[in-house]
Design brief:
This protein is α+β, with helices and mostly antiparallel strands. The chain has helices at 2-14, 29-92, 97-125, 138-157, 177-193, 244-247, 252-262; strands spanning 134-136, 160-163, 173-175, 200-208, 211-218, 266-271, 277-284. α1 (2-14) packs parallel to α2 (29-92), α3 runs parallel beside α7 and α4 packs parallel to α5 (177-193).
Length: 291
């Protein structure tokens, strides 16, 4: 009977039942053989599961790379075509050469920003980019991010950008102050883009458990619930009709997510269509100085 049970377990394993095990009775040679079989079956199951997981990751990476190549090709095509057309127009219409040149240079700037964003994202995804994790004054980072964008937002977009004063007293956050300012400015620019003239963008902070939250909220058009889970994916645009000129390449939020996660934090977007959006950065609080 023990030999028959071991044979059935081996047959089941051979047919693909990786959970198949032999029943162990007693302490004789057959029991030892059964234990050896079960040990072998366990290792085989672990090995095949690990290979399946690695294969899934490899397939996902290959798919992501194909998407990346397709998206990059699409993003590069537009500015290159615009530059070419305006250089040709410059040759055909010398009287307006200066106007054509200004447009071509503006497209060159967009092309350069795209390349720089791709380079930054690549360094972050491969862990090459250096991101500090040290105590810093989160309130100071909030004020710095707002100060550099408030006046341009008022003059160019008619949007009021301000701090939620007075900012509450929070513990120091743990992260990279310069990078956090970059992340907040990215969120602020994004909010300005989708907030109509006369709207408001408010940047604040609060204590959350053992961490610190930095929040950028606006009174803009909001984000559709179907788009919310994808806003931090690279090249994702909630409105597929937006061009790079008006909406960017869809890299800024992906870069922000990678930066914050490299500091041990998280990012989150919340919104109701027509009621604005709120982007939250959660960072761990720095340990007390005497800890």
């Amino acid at each position: 009977e023990p030999v028959s049970e071991l044979s059935r377990a081996a047959s089941a394993l051979a047919d693909g039942d990786l959970a198949s095990r032999a029943a162990i009775r007693g302490r004789d040679e057959l029991a030892a053989l059964g234990r050896s079989f079960n040990s072998m079956a366990g290792r085989l199951e672990q090995t095949l599961e690990r290979e399946a997981s690695e294969r899934t990751r490899a397939e996902a990476a290959l798919s992501a790379n194909r998407d990346l190549v397709a998206n990059v090709s699409h993003e590069l095509r537009t500015p290159v075509a615009v530059i070419r057309s305006h250089l040709e127009a410059q040759a055909d219409d010398p009287a307006h050469a200066t106007d054509y040149m200004h447009i071509a240079l503006r497209e060159m700037d967009r092309l350069q920003r795209l390349v720089e964003d791709l380079f930054a994202l690549s360094r972050l995804e491969t862990g090459v980019a250096a991101v500090a994790r040290e105590p810093f004054d989160a309130a100071g980072a909030v004020r710095e991010a707002v100060a550099s964008l408030a006046e341009p937002a008022r003059r160019q977009a008619g949007v009021l950008v301000h701090c939620a004063e007075p900012l509450p007293k929070c513990p120091q956050a743990l992260g990279d102050r310069e990078r956090i300012v970059q992340v907040l400015q990215n969120f602020i620019r994004n909010a300005i883009r989708f907030t109509p003239k006369g709207g408001i963008v408010v940047v604040g902070m609060r204590t959350a458990g053992e961490g610190v939250e930095l929040v950028v909220a606006d009174t803009g058009s909001g984000i559709d619930p179907a788009d919310l889970p994808h806003v931090f994916e690279r090249f994702y645009r909630a409105d597929s009709s937006r061009s790079r000129a008006s909406g960017g390449a869809g890299l800024g939020l992906a870069i922000a997510r990678h930066l914050v996660e490299a500091m041990g934090g998280t990012v989150e977007a919340a919104s109701q269509p027509g009621e604005g959006a709120e982007f939250t950065v959660r960072l761990p609080a720095a340990p007390p100085a005497n800890a």
